[in-house]
Every structure is written in structure tokens, then in C-alpha cells.
Amino acid sequence: MKEIYLIDGSSYVYRAFYAMRALNNSKGLPTNAVYILTRMLIKLIKDKAPEHMAFVLDPRGPTHRHEKYEEYKATRQRMPEALSVQFPYILDVVKALGIPIVQIEKWEADDVIAALARKLSDTNKVVIISGDKDLMQLVGGNVVMWDTLKDVLYDPAGVEKKFGVGPEYIADLLAIMGDSSDNIPGIPGIGEKGALELVKTYGHIEDIIKKADTIKPEKLRRSFSENIDKAIMSLELVKLDHDVPVETDMDGMKLKPGDQEELLRLFTELEFKGLMPEAPVQQTAPVREIKIEQGFPEEFKGIAGFYSIAGIGCCLSDGKRAWASFDDTSALRILSDPSAEIIIHDAKEAIVRAGEKGITTKAGFFDVMLAAYCIDAANNSVSLETLASSRLEKMLPSIKDFLGSGKNARHPGLIPDDEKASFLAAHAEALVELKEGLYLDMKKAGVEKLFSEIEMPLTFVLAGMEGLGILVDKSVLAKLSVEITEQISLMENEIYGLAGKTFNINSPMQLGRILFEDLGLPVIKKTKTGASTDSAVLENLAEKHDLPAKILEYRGLFKLKNTYVDTLPEMIDKKTGRVHTKLNQAVTATGRISSSDPNLQNIPIRSAIGRRIREAFIPAEGFTMLSADYSQIELRILAHITKDRALVESFMAGIDIHTRTASEVFGVALNEVTPDMRRYAKTINFGIIYGMGPHKLSVELGIKQSVAKQYIENYLAKYPGVGRYMEEMSETASSTGYVTTLLGRRRSLPEINSRNFSEREGARRMAINTPIQGTAADIIKIAMINIQKRIKTMKSRMILQVHDELLFEAAFNELEELKVMVKHEMENAFPLDVPVIAELGSGGNWAEAH
Questions:
Q1: Backbone angles phi, psi at 71, to 5 degrees
Q2: Which of 280, 326, 479, 619 is the most exposed place for a label (fewest CB within 10 A)?
């Protein structure tokens, strides 16, 4: 039997709109609905490869149900403006994907689907794609319903499991219950439970009417008997009409080939860069000439990124010839040629890989990934496939698509050489073609120096650090694991005592019942599955009961054990005996370096357990750990940028800035500031940098919002330059659509002019924070580059970067020399109007050094 997919387009458009938070392109156009819907359709086409399908829509005007009941859907609000502006794009995407659209005047999509299902299900399997309960009355025979957003398939048994009755009784059940969203009255006083009892006991509405006098209890009987007319009318509205004059047949629902050019145009305009390689019409970009060789000619000038299949693709800079090689070592040797100019995607990965084979990199690089990142740090779609799609209109398959997945997965060794060569060389050719456009865009954005003097040199520094790795003492972690296990066991007993019963602490549903039913605590936030028990909710509830606070403590301990204590020993490289975290250069929107596999930046510094974990990071024999950490670098940058007199004077005089702020905000002398006042002031100082408002500050400090508001007003009155800066950054972002760091790093903020208040405020906070945090990121990068130049002649080595801290393995006989050098380079990396201070410490492990 052939499969026919009928998509309830009208329902899905709304579901897609509400399925994720608002999403806009750089011009402020809402795109969330069209994005979710496009993803669903592409996945459907790729996974199911259907021959026949239709996207069924409601009519533009009134339907035949409005003629029966004037109040039908009268309570339904108009389509939100943010959705209506997306509708033309949705239709364009559906058409470009080759999916036929079916829309019949005066007939709702549900009725059209019902008519098509009846017409076609005798000899075909009909799959209705929807989450609408009304359509479940059609399930049966060769008709099933698939809710793709939840990935649930409903056959008759599935419908009965969900509603308590089979598909044939769904219309009766819904008619008695009524439906407020469609303004279907139903029977007053009878809800879902009563409706289900009536249908299960008596059957269809006409059968219930015949036996109305026997209904029990009395209240249920009276409600039904007095509203039989409403039940009949509601049934007429709910029951789907199979007699729609639909002319569409199998041929009319044949899926057409996708329009690749139109999809590319739409995805470019909507800025769906991540979807471009996923389009079902993708093809490997053509390559002019391919040669399969074990080495490359001397005149070679370009190289592709490295993939999980063995081999490297190359293309000459004139774009006329391309190569592919499956001998990694031979191909990598080009990196040791100082005369080679190499265009690449993610140079660091290549440098690390060459290092593993004993090859020292001396070639010149142009990294297209870093170039795209410098043009806009907020652009997290910098994969080669995405860049080729958006800039060259080439659809390159990703390695995932090339190798396949699931049942269609292919082993690299079984893929023919010519196919691998085409894949590799096509990517190489795209790299060469990308360079010129990216370079011109960097010039327009004024970030050429950022790229050539910071990001490209830093790539080599990070590659060296990744290659070195860091030693981990497994015995320290093993001992800590035993201690934490004991702590968790004790904590579980405390939790059970506070709850009054045992339960699965890691089950949100069971925890929810304890908190909101047994203990009667207020529901703060709801999710699709019920009351939320996330961290923010538990922090709020911790003021009302001891259990939420203990749950938070338990979760934190449990996470640290699973993420670090028990996992780090498994991540030690067998060859080097060290952990090699990946230092990501093009991930964060502020320019900060991030860490992954494992993420060493998330080990908490202030908790006792966090410090214990850091004790496991040790130096090699003959070395000690040296930690160098910037002191209040972001507040010093704030003083420099705002030129605020009080801030600048405090740093110039060496006055503790948190004590000074406490003195100003609370109106006391410096020597009268208490530890609690200073703690409050510290939260205010850093909160201002992150755009924190009164509500967030009140939560952080555990005070009334009105008091928090007064603290902020006091702060801005004493530091007026900060207030001016906040306004200026908001205005700059609003007029230009982006903000920059002191070194020119750019971050786009398209949401700054959004009509959505929360989006707009979020963008405003980023506009305030990014120039400060981003400049701090740039400064430590400059310091790392300068330090690496000088440390090359020493035995000591730089091994890790975490936020504002650098970590070194210092040779015993070089410790004092290294301290002087590191302190000098960190404090003089970039001149500010106030002193930059780096604090250093050393010891037998990371915790001691810090």
C-alpha cells in the first residue's frame, strides 16, 4: 500500500509558533513558526521519503460551521501579528519543498482531511500529521495519526489509551465536554470525567438521550437532560464532515522535486543558516577537476578542514584544480612548509592533529571559521557547510549526511575513493571561494586586526595548550568519590525526613507531588508536563521550606560527582596520561574562550567540593602550579569605558571597589562598611555590569524589590557615568543593531528593537555587558599571545585558560622568573585609564595555586 501524508497545516502553524521562544532574523522579522515548521517538514521528507503528501489549510473566510452556529470560534483571538507576518514565508517554504497545498473555501482543514482520508484509505495507508484531538475520530482501518512534535503515533488502541474511548466515540466525548478554544458550548456542569463516564456507560449521544432518565448520579442526569439541545448542536460542530467537495486525487498530492534556488533564497532571507545543509534537495557542490593522490604538488595553496573519514581535500587558490589524499601524514606535511598559504576551516584542529604526528606547523593560515566569527561573534552558525550555503549558494553535505546515520550509516572504509575524493575536494574548493568575501566583510566591519593580530595567533597558542593537556590525580578523585557518595546517602535521608516519605529524588514528577501536593507549596511555574521543579523554582521555594534548599544542594553534589569526580579519570588520554580539554575559539557571543570535553570552566571555585576537585589537577614532576588571575578586570574596564570619576578615583587610589560602593550606596564611611554591606555591594557592582534589574537583584540578595530598586538608584546617583554608559549602549545597539568591544569585536543584537519586551530587555542587557566582558576576553587573549612568545624559551608551559585566569606548569627553577614575566604581560596587554592587576599564586595543585 502507498502511504499518503496529510498535514494539518493550520494546526501545525500555531503549534510551531508556540513551540519555541520568539526567534527573529537580523532585520527583526519573527521567524520562530516558519523555522519549526520547516524543520519538521525537512525531517519528514528526509526520514520517510514520501511520494504523496498534502499541506491542508483552513479557508481564509467563514466556514460552514459559522452558518450553523454564529458564535463558533467567536472567543478565539486574532492571529498574533508575529505569526501573521510569517504566514507568507510558511507558504513559500511549503511550495519550495514541493509539497502540494490543499485549501477549499468554506471548509475547515479538519473536514478536508476527513474527506481525503475517506476517499483514499481504501487502497492506501493515510497518515494524518497533527496533534488536534478532533482528528482522532478519523483513526481506524488504514488511517493513523502522527503527532510529530511529540513523536507519538495513534492507532485505535493509542486513541483509547489517551482518551479512555475509541476513535468512534471521540466526537461524542468532545461534544459533551465542549471546547472553549472553538467556543463549542458542550453541556454545562459536565467536564472530562463526567463526559467519559457517560460515553463509556451509554455510548453515542443518541444512545445517551434514549436512556437519559436512567443516568446517575442525579446531578449528572439533570445536567445532561436539561441541555440535550446543546449536546446535539455541539456534536454537529465537532463531528467532521466527510462530504467536502474535494477534487484533489493521488496525482494532485504527488510530492514534487524541491526548488533548490528558492529554498536557498528563503533560508538566506530568513537567516536559517543551520537549515541550509539539511535541505532535502542538497547536492555535493561540483568540483572542476579531482585527482586522487598520496601527496600534494609543490604549488599547492589551499587545504580543507579535517573530517572523521581518513583523508584531506585540497584546492589550488586559483580554483581550477582540486585534490584528495587519504594519507594523513603525507597531507599534513604541507603544514610544515613556511611558504604555504593555507585556507582552512578550524585551523586549530589541523595544528593539533599535525602535532600528534610530530609535524610542526609553519604555514600561513586564513581560517574561514574565525573570519566569520570576527565579522559577528553572535553568529554561531560558522560551519563550513553553512558558510558555503549562505555565501556561495553551494549546498555541501555535512559529514553526518555523507556517512549517514542509523540504518543508513556507512563505514568510512567501505565508501569508494572517488566518492570520498569528491566530498573532500568540494569542501576544499568552497574554502578557496569563501576567502575573498569574508576578507572584504572583515574590512567593512573593521575587524581585520582582530582577526590577524589576535584570533589567528591565538589559534596556535590554544592548539599548543590542547596538545599539552593537564595532569589529573586519579587517587584524589577516587577518594573524593567515596566521600561524596557517603554525603549523598546522608543527604537523601535528610530529604526523606523533610518530605515525610521516600521517593525518587531525581524524578521531577515525584518531587512535584511532594512539594505541591503533600507540602502545599505554591506552584511558581508550569511546563507542558506539570508544575516545574527547576533550580529557579526551588530557589524561590527555599524561603518557605527547608526541602527545596536541600534538593538544590543534593542536585549540585550529584552533578559534580557525575560530571567531574567520576568522569575525569575516564577522560585521561592513555598515551599522554593527561586530560586534553578542547578550547573553543568561535563559540561564545562575547568572544570568551570556552572549554569542552571536559568543560573545566564550570568547576565551582567558591564551593568546598569545587576546590577539592581542583586539588586533583597537579603539575608534572619537577614543576609546580602557577595561577595568574585578573583582579576585578571587568569593573576596571567599566571605569575605563565610562570615565566615571568615582570609579576611576577608587581604582587609582587602590581603594577596594566593593567597599567604596558599599560606602556610597549605604551612606556610611569606608571604615564603617560591614562584611554584609560589602557582599551586597559586590553583587550590585557585578549585577550592574550584567544589566541586572531590581527584581533579579532582590532575588540575589534576598530583599524586597523596592529596596533593591533603591540600591540601584543610589548606585547610579553615585556613579553617574555608569548610568550614561548604559543609556548610550542601549541607543547605539538600537540604531546600529550591534555593539563592539574596545578592540572592535562585534556582536549583533537584532532583538534590541523587538516588540517583545523580554526580548528587547534581554538585548539591552547584552548591549551593556558585551563591551565589558568582550573587552576582558580580548585582553586575556592578547596576554596569552605575548606570554606564549616569551615562554617558548623556557621549560615552563601555559596549560589552561579559565575565564580571567591562566594556569601554568612552572619549572621549579623558573618559578620566580615566570611570575615576573606573566604578571608584566597580563597587566600591560592593553592600556586602561586605571591600573590592571594580576594576582598570582603557586602550589602543588590547582586549588593551592589559586
A1: -85, 5
A2: 479
